Amino acid sequence: MSQESRNIDIAHRLQQAFDEKQRKMRDAGTPYNKVIFANTVGESKQAVQAWFRTGTIDKLKLSKVSKELDVPIEWILTGDDKDIYLKVPNRQTQSLVKLIEMLPSELKEKCIREIFDSERLRVEQMDDILKHINML
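and the corresponding structure tokens:
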């Protein structure tokens, strides 16, 4: 599969995730469009339109995009089944932050280090996925 084909697949998955988010927001009575999406992820409307057209996104933007669309980065990149990736809802994340804040300093620092180490490993895994995709 060529890089162009993979990028087109990414563009289709982005559109699919966006359409699903837009449907959920509409069902909740809240407007949602690509301008709102662009503002939420901190990008211009033109940049976002290019993502949906070409499927080419800076990997540093993928985290914001996946969070906003509520899909795993891995799914955006590979199309693998979304349900195999662990997702933590915002409420759980907020509860976790509150728990960490209540810990004694030494334990709090240890937890924060562990979280940062986990995120670093996740970024490395994402790099590996991207390298693998580019090799196919």
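(Above: one complete record from the training split.) The chain has one domain: 3-135.
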